[in-house]
Each structure stands twice: as C-alpha cells, then as structure tokens.
Amino acid sequence: MYMVRKPKLTEVVSMKQLLDEAAAEEQVLPRQLPELYENVRDFYVYVDERGLGGLVALHIDMVDLAEVRSLVVRGDLRGRGVGRRLVETVVAEAELLDIARVYALTRLPEFFEKSGFREVDRNELPYKVFKDCIGCRLYPGCDEIAMVRDLAATKE
Ligand SMILES: CC(C)(COP(=O)(O)OP(=O)(O)OC[C@H]1O[C@@H](n2cnc3c(N)ncnc32)[C@H](O)[C@@H]1OP(=O)(O)O)[C@@H](O)C(=O)NCCC(=O)NCCS
Fold it and tell me: Is the CB–ligand 1 distance for residue 22 below 6 Å?
C-alpha cells in the first residue's frame, strides 16, 4: 500500500533524515527541524509499507510564484515515477491556488523537463527567491539551473 498525502507531525523527523541524506550530497538545501515543523503544511509525502518514501514542498514566494523544493525520493524507490508523482501533486495544489508559475532550482533539469518545466535565466526570478541560498557555501556561484512551469488558471 502506498500513497501521497500531507505529512503527520510524527513524520517530520523521518522527513528531516531523508532531506539530510540528500543535503549531504548537496542535492537539496538542508532544513532544520523548527523550520520543518513551521512549514510542514508546505509538504506532501509518499509513504509505503516501509514508511516514508519521498517528500516535496510547495513554498509560496508571492502572489504569482511558488517554489517546488525539498524533493527527495528514497534510494530504493527511484526511477519508478514517485518523483514525478510528487511534483504533479504540488503542481495540482498550485493550480488550485491560482498560482501563475512554479519554479525549481536544480542540478537535474532533465527530470523537471519531463514534468513540463523549461529552463530560464536565473535572473528572470525575483531576487527574494534566493534568500535561502545565502547561508549556502556555494552562494553566489551556484550551478543550479532555474526551471519554471507556467500554470493554467483554474475555472470557477
Ligand atoms: C530527482 C529525484 C527526486 C527523481 O525521483 P524519481 O522518483 O527517481 O523520478 P521518476 O522516476 O519520477 O522520474 C521521472 C522522469 O525523470 C527521469 N529522471 C529521474 N531522475 C533523473 C535524473 N537524475 N536525471 C535525468 N532524468 C531523471 C526519469 O527517467 C523519468 O523519465 P521517463 O518518464 O522518460 O522515464 C530522485 O532521484 C532523488 O530523490 N534524487 C536526490 C535528491 C534530488 O536530487 N532532488 C532534486 C533536487 S531539485
């Protein structure tokens, strides 16, 4: 049995572990526990019989822009469509909120292209979206690529 759903607070420590493993490889930014609890409603998790299998967050930056971030799939589940399913889940939520555009900062542009994103110049994104990058050792010379997906407004 597996599903994508909102996380429970009791899963936040496991979420941090999955994020820490990916952050150690510099694939995602590390997140501290207080930040995860505070922003837990941004997240969706994929769970199976082994527990937490993946996570993703939709973080709203401003009225027309949100970031798809903290995307990690457990090692043994990769390549089975779980990452795409997590991205589609947050894209669907963004569409419900009538957000015009979602973006990701990534070193895996191919993965996001397969989910309908296209590469743009990082400078096309407002400066404020880089505020979390400031503590990163790679800032400002980071090689992450900005990928965006324009969304259709929902019809009432
Ligand atoms: C990136 C990640 C989330 C992908 O999750 P996944 O469940 O393995 O991806 P999916 O199986 O849904 O793949 C969807 C498509 O993207 C492709 N894809 C997956 N990982 C890819 C990669 N590393 N490079 C290029 N393409 C990739 C798949 O081949 C698939 O294409 P297809 O539909 O033509 O078969 C996962 O590899 C991961 O957790 N990596 C470590 C953390 C990380 O890098 N996160 C992204 C930070 S922005």
Answer: yes
Q: Is the CB of 115 under 6 A from ligand 1?
A: no
CA 119, distance to chain mean position in Å, is 16
Residue 153 has pLDDT above 90, yes or no: no
CATH superfamily of 3-150: Gcn5-related N-acetyltransferase (GNAT) (3.40.630.30)
From the CB of 75, is ligand 1 less than 6 Å away? no
Nearest CA to ligand 1 atom 48: 106
Instruction: Give buried/exposed letters for 116-146 (b at 16+ CB in 10 A, else e).
Output: bbeeeeeeebeeebbeeeeeeeeeeeeebbb
Which residues share a beta bridge with 118?
148
Q: What is the pLDDT of residues 26-43, one digit of tens each?
A: 999 999 999 999 999 999
Mean pLDDT of 82-91: 98
pTM above 0.85, yes or no: yes
